[in-house]
Structures are given as C-alpha cells and as structure tokens.
Design a protein that fits this description.
Elements lengths: L8 H10 L11 H13 L4 H50 L3 H45 L24
Length: 168
C-alpha cells in the first residue's frame, strides 16, 4: 500500500509488474493497491493538471460524440441509397407505362422521392459538417494538454475517476 500511495510512475509500474508475478495471487489486496496507485498517480497536483485531466475526459467524450454523429450520417447515407433505388425503379416504370393516370401517380411519387432524397442529402451534409468541426475540436483539445502523463490516458480510466461537480 505504500507503493499505491506514493503517486509516482515507478510505484505504479512496480505494482503492475508484481501483479504478473507468481506471488501476486498471495496478496489479496493487490488489485486494490493497483487501483489506488493509478488513482494517486493520475490525481492532479495543481489547477493546470486538473484542467488537463478534465480536458482528457472531454477529449474522450468528443470521440464518442463523433462516433454518434458518424452513425447518424450513415443512416442518412443509407436512406439516400434507398431513395435512389426507388427513384430508378419509378423512372423505369414511367418509361414503361402508357396509362396516363398511372403516369401521373408515378410522377407524383417520383417527386416525393426526389424531395425526400434532397432532405436526406441536407441532413447528411449537415452531419458531415458537424463531424468535421467536432474532429477539429477533438484534436485541438488533445494538443492543448500539457501534462505528459495525461496525454495517453485511456477512456476506461474515467470509468472510475470522477470530478466533483461533474456534469458530463
């Protein structure tokens, strides 16, 4: 536990190394010590480090938001494909039919599909714009982190590390 509370990289590394040894199973509290060692090692020591740690959490949050936006964009892209297929089918039917009432109905449906396709394109382009902006913000957040030990901090770290007054 002395290693766990020392808040140094060397202590953290020693605990992780010991956890792989043959004697690790003899120490019941080893995982607790590893977790505490990680907590103390990554705990901020001043306002700048606190800001950097919050920034790293935000960096990971933005990554998830980008993923969600990409999923939404993919839905719009899929819908665009569907409408294009339907438009092609309607155009083919329009060429084949001789009935004027049927032609009129096909033209109406074709117009509706074209309008829906235009709407989907607009949504897709909007999501792409949002993704591009979010990626720039995401990258800029990482560039602004100056505390070296936070630069490669995994998103899973934040599963167990929370800030006072945290809203995100």
């Amino acid at each position: 536990m002395s290693l766990a509370h020392s808040s140094t990289k060397e202590a953290k590394d020693l605990l992780e190394e010991f956890s792989k040894s043959d004697r690790a199973s003899e120490v019941e509290w080893l995982q607790c010590a590893i977790d505490e060692g990680e907590f103390y090692y990554y705990s901020p020591n001043d306002d700048e480090e606190r800001r950097d740690l919050i920034a790293m959490k935000l960096y990971h949050k933005k990554f998830n938001e980008i993923y969600d936006l990409e999923h939404e964009a993919d839905k719009h892209k899929f819908n665009m494909i569907v409408y294009n297929i339907e438009i092609d089918a309607l155009k083919a039917l329009l060429l084949e039919t001789t009935d004027e009432d049927e032609k009129s109905q096909i033209e109406i449906q074709l117009s509706v599909c074209n309008d829906l396709l235009t709407i989907e394109k607009g949504h897709y382009e909007s999501k792409q714009y949002d993704i591009n902006l979010m990626e720039k913000v995401h990258d800029k957040i990482l560039q602004q982190i100056t505390t070296e030990r936070y630069k490669n901090l995994s998103y899973t770290f934040f599963d167990s590390f929370h800030f006072d007054y945290e809203t995100f």
